[in-house]
Amino acid sequence: VTMIPVYVIFAKLHWIPSFLPLIVPAFFANAFSIFLLRQFFVSIPEEITDAARIDGCSELQLMVRIIVPLVPGGNLDIVARAVAAPMGEGLGQQILVENRPGASSLVGTQFVAKSAADGYTLLAIANTFATVPSLMKNPGYDALKDFAGVSLTCLVPQVLVVTPTLPVRTTKELLVLAKARPGQLAYGSSGAGSTGHIAAELMAMQGGVKFLHVPYKGNAAAIVDVIAGNVQMMFDQISAAKPYIESGRLRALGVTSLKRSPLFPNVQTIDESGLKGYEEITFNGLIAPAGTPRE
Question: Residue 229, Cβ neighbours under 10 Å: how many?
Fold first, then answer.
């Protein structure tokens, strides 16, 4: 696998599930997330090697695939497709993006873990890759032993969005409503341990409220139900939620970064809303099966 020159700024990830038995595992999962990033993405070469550009190279006759372990349309899928284009140009061939959703991204992740370490199968990952093993007894993969890092691709804050019919316009008003209706406000996510799940449970813990979790096979599926009002809210990456917010189909209440997003400068941070120190940032990256050659 040839490393891709993608420049990112790394930020510390903060998350703790609201259910007490997982507070300690959550602490270690957060540290594990940071450890994985440092292990996987310590070096990104400046250029795609000339050897990968040689026309007629027999190895490049095979199709390189990026497996996205979620449904199409979500942030992870969008970023993978955006990265695939320049990768294909550098390699002189088209890169196939293939969605294999299911079981909080385990279906696609396990598929790549068992794939040949020949450089033709990559996995698009986000925070879920590091958090799910702390929530499941047997996730079917060892994050450190079964994979080799390729590159970070981006860091993206999330945005808390609600269905427009919900009578709230700020995070503070949402928390007041949630306290009046404990366990009745439902939020969608791409599954247990996903960024949206962790962000919502962190808010519930800090805000002293209880939400109802409704997992989907990806945020793209969840956001449809939020728009329809079948679930009241969700946390989604700004890149994926932006068009729905701008069209009025979703209402943005707060962003999960400590600074306001330049895309929505009038939307408060959740930290500003009263939950001091609240921060939840999504990282995206590419990894390959363990043993894959660096070039």
Answer: 12
